[in-house]
Automatic annotation (TrEMBL), chains A, B:
Pathway: Cofactor biosynthesis; adenosylcobalamin biosynthesis. GO terms for biological process: cobalamin biosynthetic process; methylation. It comes from Paenirhodobacter ferrireducens. The keyword Transferase applies. Residues 5-212 form the Tetrapyrrole methylase domain. Its EC number is 2.1.1.131. Transmembrane segments: none annotated. GO terms for molecular function: precorrin-3B C17-methyltransferase activity. Keywords: Cobalamin biosynthesis, Methyltransferase, S-adenosyl-L-methionine, Transferase. The lineage of its organism: Bacteria, Pseudomonadati, Pseudomonadota, Alphaproteobacteria, Rhodobacterales. This is Precorrin-3B C(17)-methyltransferase. The keyword Isomerase does not apply.
Length: 245, 245
């Protein structure tokens, strides 16, 4: 029996946003590996071993998956959202690079609905034109890189989506992000704080940049910043498709 | 009977990438509105009226959907990929803004698997760190805006995804994009040309920037450009999660 690894995106939370491809992989799996709250979204069943692990141990988790697959197990690594967006796919390839004995592993990456697109859909279409996705966590990169990318995104008049905007461990980072935005964008720039979209805890709040406060975000929030043309129509926020010459 | 509009993302092509939420909306619909090849992906059935229309008539299509919903119809506007990424959601809100008589319309946006994430999953994880999505079509914006955004994305060392890279009508645009990339990035920068991902016509081709040629892309291609740290491991391309200080 030959083992395999599927790195699967569970989407933002609702079952209705899990693709049939991901559901099929979970139905065939012998083992599910992932961060505790994501593994908790997989229904237990006979023949399925769950391997929940803590945050910040992505490389250990990936190494476990490679070992299990080499033993012939059918392993699904679960990510929230899409596995290729600030999630487990890159971690698996880092682990693969460090473990040449697993070079022949049978790997598939199964895309999912990433948080920024689920949040944008609830708000309207704030990412309806060119946009950037930036991870504001400075666990794996210096804040100077975040700042450089923010300034570039402002210079390019991109709409922006921020992942991991704020944690208890570093509340000052997001305050600094708002300062940088205020220095480069007009005060009426629209910002949507989208928390836990598609779960029972969902909450959306759209404000102007002048009104935005750091405490409007937590680690379950995706922050969507419009470009200079983003506007409201009724309860919706959208970015027009075109830019006039 | 009260009508509604759902703007639904069909994903990149495969049925296994259509969310259950979108399938449910299509099952309840009385009318499906959209660009001809996307409407062709919806199975005909009794009680369902299909309204396929040509490209570049997005506002007419959105106005039709608003009119049908006002008549009590259950309308799904279909987009390829995700409706909020260079697709019909923004067009619907533009039409809504122009038609205040429809201000009370019951609208939902249903996210889908957007082309860049399906393509990234096939390639590995080239968008595994901060990235930009840029529409290279100059139908609705001057090329100077595209150029400004490209330069900003290079300055920020973002990975990039390009939608609509090349058409018969303007083959020179993508050649110019490659020139701009060559001026700002190292020749070994990895670029993946991902064509028609998840369809029978799927084709992936990863080359270096030095090897990239304009004719490697057409309008069914999404182009993924790595950041300065993007690399290969075996047949995969991935962008590491971190940036070393």
């Amino acid at each position: 029996m030959s083992g395999w690894i599927a790195v699967a995106g569970l989407g933002p939370g609702a079952e209705a946003l899990v693709t049939p491809e991901v559901s099929a992989a979970l139905a065939e799996a012998s083992d599910v590996v992932g961060y505790i709250p994501y593994v908790a979204r997989v229904a237990p069943r006979a023949g399925l071993t769950l391997h929940p692990s803590d945050n910040r141990v992505e490389l250990d988790r990936a190494a476990l998956a490679l070992t299990l697959a080499a033993e012939g197990r059918r392993v699904v690594i679960v990510s929230s959202g899409d596995p290729g967006v600030f999630a487990m796919a890159s971690a698996l390839f880092e682990a693969l690079e460090a473990a040449p004995e697993h070079a022949g592993a049978d790997i598939r990456i199964l895309p999912g609905i990433t948080a920024m697109l689920a949040a944008a859909a609830r708000a309207g279409a704030p990412l309806g034109h060119d946009f950037c996705a930036i991870n504001l966590s400075d666990n794996l990169k210096p804040f100077a890189v975040i700042e450089r990318r923010l300034r570039a995104a402002i210079a390019g008049d991109f709409a922006m989506a921020f992942y991991n905007p704020r944690s208890k461990a570093r509340p000052e980072g997001f305050a600094r992000v708002l300062e940088i935005l205020r220095a480069g964008c007009e005060p009426g720039r629209l910002i949507t704080f989208a928390r836990a979209v598609s779960t029972p805890d969902e909450a959306l709040n759209t404000v102007t940049l002048a009104e935005a406060r750091p405490e409007m975000a937590d680690m379950r929030t995706v922050v969507l910043v419009g470009n200079s043309g983003t506007r409201r129509v009724g309860r919706w926020v959208y970015t027009p498709r075109g830019v006039k010459p």
